[in-house]
């Protein structure tokens, strides 16, 4: 418990902020040792504070005056035999454009006077050998840089051809075997369409990632899949299948249940939402619950049991369940299966019960679908669902705010909101990649303490329950990107603008979840700030739960 309190205190600086938690790294830059053509592909990114979406300050370890990464352009034409004359080989001095031998008559890099053609002897051989070409280029280098050139050894070693991956990593300042840094560099190259760098980095990354390795190696495999899918514009298809066989409905149900059991994230969300609802409707005779993603309906089993034990007898309960395609597939059938299960539970507890199925996406819901009745205490549940709704950055319909305003117009007794505490909605691609890497590193680490790395079921759980979301965040844009998380500060702004007021969660909810966490790793922590509950792993807040009226 002391350890948990310490962890909670260290996390406090994050929780009061509406900014991203990830300290976006400055991609390390190697200072050039000689005169190269400057490129800007790997300049250190310096982010400044922006909007609610997050603040990206400069890394305190980065040097704002550091030199951009530089490299030597290839001095060798693709095929010497394809040129009519070997006297057109190009070289790029510092800050200049490639020079042919004809241009060298008019330009002197060293002192402003023309370079004499007689300084360089090039044999007009129609089929020069590789050694001859290298020698001529060295002579040209000697003239242009001087006999005492300080060019490093690998400059001459790789005058012809491209440096191998190890040399690339050395030039870019990436420690050998540093998977995280290589992923970040690759993402930056993808953002800047640096296809030469992407090609070798993807090859290196494929050697380093593994779906049965460390948490970073496993996460890296799916992040890499997302980068490749983004380049191939195939993110939407990979989101559906991830280049792997689609599981049967029973298998998918099993994987979802395993994730529910091994990590407390979903239990935390459902328990806190149920606690808020039970507290708000404790005096009502009739309760109507609208669940915007009812899934298997498991959340409501415990609430039905709790309300059945209420002093003075239970209320009548009516649940409107809104479906989603993945849950329907996992169930192996429609919403009638959920209704049947919940009705059976209510009957066993002597609770009057109705179930109203809505087989449609949450973005399609309108007031007339909800069958609101006068005199009912209305509770609305948004558990891990509202981030799927598109907002003003995607289309003018802005279903995210439209739904919030719709619910406000119904005058609900309580609205429960549970969301992942992450910032991936409107962030630029590279920042979104960094945020995803940091967030899911914590998720994969937490799974690692409960499931063996060679456990085939763990692989399936990560692949079918987590990886598709990761690939969607990295690879997709526009309407295809459905994983659009926001930080609590942004949700607070949306609900406040719609006219809602915060409804602090009761201390009983806090105590119940603390008891739940006792059976999990001490790396999990719980913190309450002004009636809002945060669940985190080590340094990282992961899930936030709150209520509104």
Automatic annotation (TrEMBL):
<feature type="compositionally biased region" description="Polar residues">
    <location>
        <begin position="88"/>
        <end position="112"/>
    </location>
</feature>
<keyword id="KW-0805">Transcription regulation</keyword>
<dbReference type="InterPro" id="IPR005202">
    <property type="entry name" value="TF_GRAS"/>
</dbReference>
<feature type="region of interest" description="Leucine repeat I (LRI)">
    <location>
        <begin position="177"/>
        <end position="237"/>
    </location>
</feature>
<feature type="region of interest" description="Disordered">
    <location>
        <begin position="32"/>
        <end position="112"/>
    </location>
</feature>
<comment type="similarity">
    <text>Belongs to the GRAS family.</text>
</comment>
<dbReference type="Pfam" id="PF03514">
    <property type="entry name" value="GRAS"/>
</dbReference>
<feature type="region of interest" description="SAW">
    <location>
        <begin position="475"/>
        <end position="549"/>
    </location>
</feature>
<keyword id="KW-0804">Transcription</keyword>
<feature type="short sequence motif" description="VHIID">
    <location>
        <begin position="287"/>
        <end position="291"/>
    </location>
</feature>
<feature type="region of interest" description="VHIID">
    <location>
        <begin position="256"/>
        <end position="321"/>
    </location>
</feature>
<feature type="region of interest" description="Leucine repeat II (LRII)">
    <location>
        <begin position="337"/>
        <end position="369"/>
    </location>
</feature>
<feature type="compositionally biased region" description="Polar residues">
    <location>
        <begin position="35"/>
        <end position="73"/>
    </location>
</feature>
<protein>
    <submittedName>
        <fullName>GRAS transcription factor</fullName>
    </submittedName>
</protein>
């Amino acid at each position: 418990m002391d350890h948990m309190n310490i962890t909670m205190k260290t996390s406090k600086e994050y929780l009061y902020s509406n900014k991203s938690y990830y300290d976006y790294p400055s991609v390390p830059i190697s200072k050039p040792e000689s005169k190269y053509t400057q490129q800007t592909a790997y300049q250190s990114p310096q982010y400044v504070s922006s909007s609610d979406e997050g603040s990206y300050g400069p890394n305190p370890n980065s040097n704002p005056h550091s030199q951009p990464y530089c490299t030597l352009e290839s001095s060798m034409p693709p095929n010497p035999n394809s040129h009519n004359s070997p006297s057109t080989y190009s070289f790029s001095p510092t800050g200049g454009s490639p020079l042919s031998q004809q241009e060298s008559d008019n330009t002197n890099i060293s002192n402003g006077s023309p370079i004499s053609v007689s300084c360089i002897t090039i044999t007009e051989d129609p089929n020069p050998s590789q050694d001859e070409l290298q020698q001529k280029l060295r002579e040209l280098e000697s003239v242009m840089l001087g006999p005492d050139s300080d060019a490093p050894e690998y400059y001459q070693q790789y005058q012809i051809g491209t440096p191998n991956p190890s040399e690339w990593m050395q030039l870019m300042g990436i420690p050998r075997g540093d998977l995280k840094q290589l992923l970040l560099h690759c993402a930056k190259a993808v953002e800047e369409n640096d296809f030469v760098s992407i090609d070798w980095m993807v090859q290196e990354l494929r050697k380093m990632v593994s779906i049965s390795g460390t948490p970073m190696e496993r996460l890296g495999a799916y992040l890499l899949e997302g980068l490749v899918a983004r380049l191939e514009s195939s993110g939407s298809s990979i989101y559906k299948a991830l280049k792997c066989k689609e599981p049967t409905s029973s298998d998918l149900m099993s994987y979802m249940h395993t994730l529910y059991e091994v990590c407390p994230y979903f239990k935390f969300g459902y328990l806190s939402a149920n606690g808020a609802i039970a507290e708000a409707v404790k005096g009502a005779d009739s309760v109507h619950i609208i669940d915007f993603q009812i899934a298997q309906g498991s959340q409501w089993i415990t609430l039905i049991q709790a309300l059945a034990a209420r002093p003075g007898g239970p209320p009548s309960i009516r649940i409107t369940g809104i479906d989603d395609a993945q849950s329907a597939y996992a169930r192996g059938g429609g919403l009638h299966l959920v209704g049947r299960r919940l009705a059976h539970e209510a009957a066993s507890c002597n609770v009057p019960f109705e179930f109203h199925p809505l087989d449609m996406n949450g973005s399609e819901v309108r007031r007339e679908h909800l069958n609101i009745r006068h005199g009912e205490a209305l509770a609305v549940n948004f558990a891990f669902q509202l981030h799927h709704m598109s907002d003003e950055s995607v289309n003018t319909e802005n279903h995210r705010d439209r739904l919030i305003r719709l619910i406000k117009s119904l005058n609900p007794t309580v609205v429960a909101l549970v969301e992942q505490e992450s910032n991936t909605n409107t962030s630029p691609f590279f920042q979104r990649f960094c945020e995803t890497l940091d967030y899911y590193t914590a998720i994969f680490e937490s799974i690692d303490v409960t499931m063996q790395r060679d456990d085939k079921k763990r692989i399936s759980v990560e692949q079918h329950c987590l990886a598709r979301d990761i690939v969607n965040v990295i690879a997709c844009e526009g309407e295809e990107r459905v994983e659009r998380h926001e930080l609590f500060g942004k949700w607070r702004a949306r609900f406040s603008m719609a006219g809602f007021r915060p409804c602090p969660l009761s201390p009983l909810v806090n105590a119940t979840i603390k008891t739940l966490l006792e059976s999990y790793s001490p790396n999990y922590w719980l913190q309450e700030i002004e009636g809002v509950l945060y669940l985190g792993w080590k340094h990282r807040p992961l899930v936030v739960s709150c209520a509104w009226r």
